[in-house]
Amino acid sequence: MLDWVDEPTLAALFGLGGGVLLGLAARLGRFCTLGAIEDALYGDSLVRMRMWAVAIAMAVALASGLTALGLLDPSDSFYLAQGWNLWGAVAGGLVFGYGMALAGNCGYGALARLGGGDMRSFVIVLVMGLAAYVTLSGPLSGLRVALFAPNSATGASGIGHALSGLTGLPLALCGVLIAAAILVAALWPRAEPMPIGGALWGGAVGLAVAGGWAGTAWLHRAGFDALPVVSHTFSAPLGETMLYAMTSSGSALSFGVGSVAGVLVGAFVGSLWKGHFRWEACEDPRELKRQILGAALMGWGAVTAAGCSIGQGISAFSVLAYSAPITLAAIGLGAALGLRQLISGFAPAE
Q1: Which residues neighbour 144 within 8 Å (Cβ) at sequence distance 6 or greater?
Q2: What is the pLDDT of residue 250?
Q3: Which whole number is the average pLDDT over 275-296?
Q4: Average pLDDT score, the chain
């Protein structure tokens, strides 16, 4: 295959395939980070939150299976190969979650809505991508590193590695056991049953993330360009896609660019399939101002936490990075605070 397609393009195709599946999950399966949190807090429904748990369980199980087969070394992933900062994960997650509530979507959700014709989400995508790069390698990068410098990595270390060290069980088996526990908790019978479709779309999201690991790990082993082992995330790749769109004649494709394009394509197809595609724009300047602020906060928060709700919440979780549950909890708390401010304000309930 590498004789016919160059490695960066092939990485982008892997990203494109998984991104299409993620876009379809958003439009057909209503898989949404903020929607799951809002349903749980104000809609008396845990269905979409349980879909998230199914996605995490599937991603962990499949990544562990790839590890057992020798097709993935989790220590090659960004989340385990480099150190992380606890306070960066907490602060970044809180700011990202709060910004997500203000904007009405995370980066992945904004892409999915843009694929359905919502031009308000176009503004969110642009601002978030710009803010991410300003924080990653622009004027705010020095401040970010000074405040939240990652700890030095001392070899692969994650939840699975810790459990393997304590029990003596193989790393992959520890991952499968953790995935099974999460899946049982997600599918355990409750008063509100879990729809089969919801479970399937949650599983599809986990499959997309694991597919990203499988494809880029194979390229890392078989190729000559030393491409990174990555999976889906929607913070810095938004800015990366903007840069590629402006400088494609002098730059190469990447997994992240393909992933962003794939979500747009999948969301577009899904919205047409459901008959939901329609052009929408913002008619309230106050709403637009809130969305721009939220997008900027998400860009800063995602880079500071080294990942967004998808990047840390599922991709990092799939390799059982320590940062994943901490960042995901911080994102949920930040979103809850933002939603409360928008819905009822911070005045004490009477």
Answers
A1: 88, 135, 303, 304
A2: 82
A3: 92
A4: 93
Minimal CA–CA distance to 266: which of 205, 203, 197? Answer: 205
| Sequence-separated (6 or more) residues with CB below 8 Å from residue 49 | 36, 37, 39, 40
Query: DSSP characters for 296-319?
Result: HHHHHHHHHTTS-TTIIIIIIHHT
At CA 124, angle to CA 308 and CA 46, rounded to 5? 50
State the alpha helices, DSSP H only, in the chain. 7-28, 33-42, 47-68, 78-81, 86-103, 107-115, 119-136, 141-148, 159-167, 171-187, 196-222, 236-247, 255-274, 285-304, 317-318, 323-343
- Please list the residues that pair with 77 across neighbouring strands: 229
* Residue 101 contacts residue 297 (beta carbons within 8 Å): no
Distance CA 341, CA 216 (A): 41
Q: Which amino acid is at 26?
A: A
Torsion of CA 40, 317, 231, 130, to 10 degrees: 60
pLDDT value for 193: 87
Residue 89 token pair: 């994960």
pTM over 0.85: yes
| 345 has a pLDDT exceeding 90 | no
State how far the Cα of 333 lies from the Cα of 328, in Å rounded to an integer: 9
CA Rg value for the chain: 19
Assess contact for 52 and 296: CB atoms under 8 A.
no
Proportion of the chain above pLDDT 70, given as a percent: 96
Could you give the CA distance from residue 213 to residue 5 in angstroms, rounded to a whole number?
19
Give me the pLDDT at residue 191, please. Answer: 78
Work out the average pLDDT over 141-154: 84
What is the pLDDT at residue 168?
A: 95
**CB–CB of 41/334 below 8 Å?**
no
Residues 155-182 have pLDDT tens digits of: 567 999 999 999 999 999 999 999 999 9
Give CA 316 to chain center in angstroms. Answer: 9
Cα distances (Å, whole numbers) of residue 307 to 28, 191, 277, 303, 331: 25, 34, 29, 6, 11
